[in-house]
Amino acid sequence: MFDTVVVATDGSESVKRAVDVALDLADRFDADIHALSVVDASEVDASPQQLRDELRTALETTADAALATVEDRADEDVEITAAVREGRPAAEICEYAREIDADLVATGTRGRHGENRLLLGSVAERIVRTSPVPVLSVRQLDPVAEDEADDAPAQ
């Protein structure tokens, strides 16, 4: 059913559960995992000209760290294709899914800027609305529910 799963990550706390769910799903279906992090070009463009190169470098470093987190959370024998793109995050994620003929995109419901959004972060919402493939949006559990989920037996 799923041969290729894209997990979109920005390294935020809310995406960690989405990474775990995506890795588990890929394992169950023996699917390939692609981890993707997007450097938001609008953040770079909105910064003062003299800071753009430094900001781009910092955002690329953050993206690399987010991808490393996905690799760290995966089993040792799982091969992950990692990619960093620059652009509008939702558009880049959807385009990447098209390019690799993905079967599913997994994302957290809120990212680095998502605390001000009630249900879905703006990037997650755009992905859900525009993705060429099904989207699995995984919400972050509150700390008590997360502890209970960790203690629950595996299904």
Automatic annotation (TrEMBL):
Q: State the superkingdom.
A: Archaea
* Matches recorded under InterPro entries: Rossmann-like_a/b/a_fold, Universal_stress_UspA, UspA
Residue limits of the UspA domain? 1-139
Query: Which CDD domains would you find in this protein's record?
Result: USP-like
Family statement: Belongs to the universal stress protein A family.
Q: What is this protein called?
A: UspA domain-containing protein
> From which organism does this entry originate?
Natronorubrum bangense JCM 10635
